[in-house]
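Hey team,

Filing this mostly as a record. A colleague (T.K.) asked me to run one chain through the structure pipeline before their review meeting, and I want the input and output archived in the tracker in case anyone asks later how it was produced. No errors, nothing strange. Just documentation.

Input sequence:
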Amino acid sequence: MKIIDLTYPIEEGMLKFNAYWHPFVSIEQLGRIDVEGRESRKIVLGTHTGTHVDAPLHFIKNGRSIDQIPLEKLIGEITIIDFSHLDENSSITKDMLENKKISKKMLFKFGWGRYWMEERFYQGYPYFTKEAAEFLVSKNVELLSYDTPSPDDSRTKLGSEQDSEIHKIFLKNNIILVEYLANLEKIQEYDGWSISVNPLAIKNADGSPARVYLFR
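Output structure:
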């Protein structure tokens, strides 16, 4: 079996979204082998830290929480589309998707991991138009994953009427979003892969960091 890990390690000092509600990662050692006879740690992080899963509850009031997502939505054959040739602030349109294979589980490779740990990671990434998002909904996509921080245009002002519009289209239709994928440059052949997405089962939570990998 070949496996490609798509997960950024969780560590202190890692990149986070610049908003007051996103905490910095803190990892504090508690138990020590030489003192308590065992190692243990206290970890402080947000539900959208690093490689993570968005549950519908993230933007949809009374939406499904992370612990309520059926596991069959999180594992299985996946279609990979390489859009790494796109320029900054490019929009993915319906026309760009109509001639592509669309399956229940989709992975979009934008090559955006080259900016990981840089502030520009959060600016200028390709995004989905409203028509493209609605097209994917019409094709019964149930899981959408990508190496950018969001499916929305990064130039949209937080708190505006258009804030996270694409997130909301996907999540209100119970499409699970997997964000901040790592190591997509390691994918050189695109056929025959399955994905495994493994968030923590945090009761009533809007999302969770996850270990994500491809296998075949």
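Quick notes for T.K.: The first strand starts at residue 3 and ends at 5. The chain is about 10% helix and 25% strand.
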